[in-house]
Amino acid sequence: MLKINNLHVQVGDKDILKGLNLEVGPGEVHAIMGPNGSGKSTLGYSLAGRDGYEVTDGSVLFDGQNLLELEAEERAAAGLFLAFQYPVEIPGVNNAYFLRAALNAQRKARGEDEVDSIDFLRAVREQLKALQMDDSLLKRAVNEGFSGGEKKRNEMVQMAVLQPKLAILDETDSGLDIDALKLVAEGVNRLRNDERSFVVITHYQRLLEHLVPDQVHVLSNGRIVESGGRELAERLEQEGYGFLSPEEDAA
Amino acid sequence: MSELLEQFSAPPLIELESDLEALRKHAQKVLMQHGFPQRKTEAWKYTPIAALERRDWSSDGPDESAARTESIELPFDAHRIPVHNGQIDTSQLNEIDGLHIEPLRAEQIDTSAYVDHDPSDAFAWLNLARLEQGICIRVTHTLERPLALQFSSSDQFKQAAHPRIRIELAEGVEATLFEQHRLHGSGLINLVMDLQLAAGSSLQHLMQRQNDESALIARTEAQLEQAAHYQAYVLDLGGALTRQDLKVHLNESRARTRIHGVAALKDKQLVDYHTAIQHRVGPSHSEEDFRILADNHSMGVFNGRIHMLPGADDSHSDMNTANLLLSEHARINTKPELEIHAEEVTASHGATVGQLEEAARFYLRSRGLNDAEALALLKFGFAAAAFDALESEPLRQWFTDRLKQAL
Ligand SMILES: Nc1ncnc2c1ncn2[C@@H]1O[C@H](COP(=O)(O)OP(=O)(O)OP(=O)(O)O)[C@@H](O)[C@H]1O
Ligand SMILES: [Mg+2]
Fold first, then answer.
1. What is the pTM of this model?
2. What pLDDT is stored for residue A248 in this prediction?
3. Measured between beta carbons, which residues in chain A are less than 8 angstroms from residue B371?
4. Contact A105 B368 (CB under 8 A)
5. Together in a domain, B156 and B240
6. CATH at residue A18
7. What is the predicted pLDDT for the residue at A251?
8. Residue B354, pLDDT above cutoff 50
């Protein structure tokens, strides 16, 4: 599904990712943990194709194609989804309209017909209900005035409607109350199948208890410095990142 | 600017009855004395009057295409009043209950508010100095259909025309007025509209303009009596030179107004809004929101003045202007002015000039919209908010559809 090889990314003049390797198979859930500023969001943005995140070396294969030569919107249409750490407010654009425009744009790019508007609304309402969000959010401007938790859940609504092949969740669990965290985890679990993969960036073990990742990675200073099973997350939760070898930290 | 005056004064005028003739003479005198706005005339410093001077006004005469009236699309049944090349045609308005059309009389022209010691109001004086056709529309009952003033000019239109329209709403009457402009050619429409809202009446005034080279200079002045309600929604989608003065006088208590406008400009288009809301008596209420999106080499101007006079106690006013610069060559000048001489008033004003955020653009693209779609959606979201308050869903739809098409 995703194969990242020796990825180097510069933002401004600063090297942020410094030879990152990661492989995620179909249907797998990978967690990425790591200290603040280590480059986790940078990885998400680079994969999603944000301007200013310049890949200086390495390669990324997504579903067999060279991800790096695609525009951001082409990556979305190809099935890549990034749930933002800080979802962006879009004043004046109503949520339902935006979602439908996004879905139709992706479908058009894939040569599919536009969605039927009734089916669409039904699907969105279902997702809202599952995430215990009020229908009125559909009529409000995208993320505008949403609480922190509502913004995160709104990302999950979008993910569920857009049905990506690979979803990168950048700290979707941060700022969620305990119940909302469960809802989000359930939302992810509902989408899980043999094909669909997830990269879950998180600082906490709690979300992973619900998601049960196949692998846990530690990103530090622009590289994956440790990988393991879910027990790695538990160890990090207890010990922090102190046990990482000093050379890795300084590299 | 004396050349401009000469050029505008050249074609002979048809004769009017003596009171109007006297008014015309007086206006000509004021014009002769002070001429047209100069660069240093504060209220006109961004309106490129000089560009008008460079145009060829010499070819005035019968316009061969005068007969060709363009019909401007309107999704509603309306009482249409075409104004082609400046000629007001009320022939479609026969025998409609509650609607009376009359030639304008001298006593219906109030020049007391026109500045006569400098060129600030030169175009209002010019409108009078060249007055040929003025009409008064009296609405004595609430109409079933809106009125539609449809301004158009042909490709050959090179003249200056000075239509003058007065609309009176009787007590308690509700009306919707569409004002559409599709000006082609390279002339000038120098329009004056006087709106009289009697006690308890309500006017919804919807302006939509999409002009090319022909210039539009419009002065719209609304006088509100007790508890009258004036709402204006303006959508400007281009024009080489559009100047709109919008003056609302809240003359009696509980009068209220809402004026909202959007200009989406590109190329070398220019829109200059000068609004003034006078709270003369309290409590009175005003709300204002203007948004300009300037792309390419275009220029947008917003000058909004709120004046709370002594006696306007307990009044309330909100003014907001939000602007988007879409190109490094575009310019926006915005200036809210608040002058308060009353007690116990609440007034707020805000003005922003910004650019589209990269984060928002990327967010939309990451969901599958291409860059052009993302841009259009962001611009739309920014501007469309000005029409949120439009109560009628079909009207709001009509406005937002126009806007969407233009972005
Ligand atoms: N536009 C930028 N210009 C310069 N430096 C940047 C820019 N964007 C990010 N960085 C730097 O890149 C580094 C990695 O940032 P990133 O947001 O990827 O960290 P993170 O691992 O997601 O951290 P957190 O856990 O706090 O979310 C940080 O040091 C950050 O300051
Ligand atoms: Mg981050």
1. 0.90
2. 46
3. 71, 73
4. yes
5. yes
6. 3.40.50.300
7. 39
8. yes
Interface of A with B in 212-241 (CB under 8 A): none
Q: Residue B63: is its pLDDT beyond 70?
A: no
Chain A nearest-CA distance from B369, in A, is 6
- Which residue from B303, B1, B16 is spatially nearest to B122, judged by alpha carbons? B1
Give ipTM to 2 decimals: 0.95
Residue B228 or B50, more confident: B228
| pLDDT > 90: percent of chain B | 76
Residue range B172-192, pLDDT digits in tens: 999 999 999 999 999 999 999
Does residue B64 surpass a pLDDT of 80?
A: no
Residues B236 and B363 in one domain: no
Asked if residue B393 belongs to a domain, the reply is yes
8 Å CB contact between B142 and B109: no
CB burial string B54-66: b at 16+ within 10 A, e below: ebebeeeeebebe
Contact (CB, 8 A) for A47 and A67: yes
Residue B214 shares a structural domain with residue B343: yes
Of A51, A98, A158, the CB nearest to B362: A51
What pLDDT, on the 0 to 100 scale, is given for residue B61? 53
What six digits make up the tokens of A54? 């310049």
Residues with CB under 5 A from ligand 2 (ion): A 40-41, 85
Classify residue A35: in a domain, yes or no.
yes
Q: What is the pLDDT of residues B360-399, one digit of tens each?
A: 999 999 999 999 999 999 999 999 989 999 998 999 999 9
Range of the structural domain that residue B273 is part of: 3-58+80-357
Is B63 inside any structural domain? Answer: no
**Across chain A, what does the average pLDDT equal?**
92
Range of the domain at A178: 2-88+164-250
Is B377 in contact with A93 (Cβ distance < 8 A)?
yes
Asked if the model's pLDDT at residue A249 lies above 50, the reply is no
Alpha helices in chain A (DSSP H): 40-48, 72-78, 95-109, 117-130, 148-162, 178-191, 205-211, 230-239, 246-250
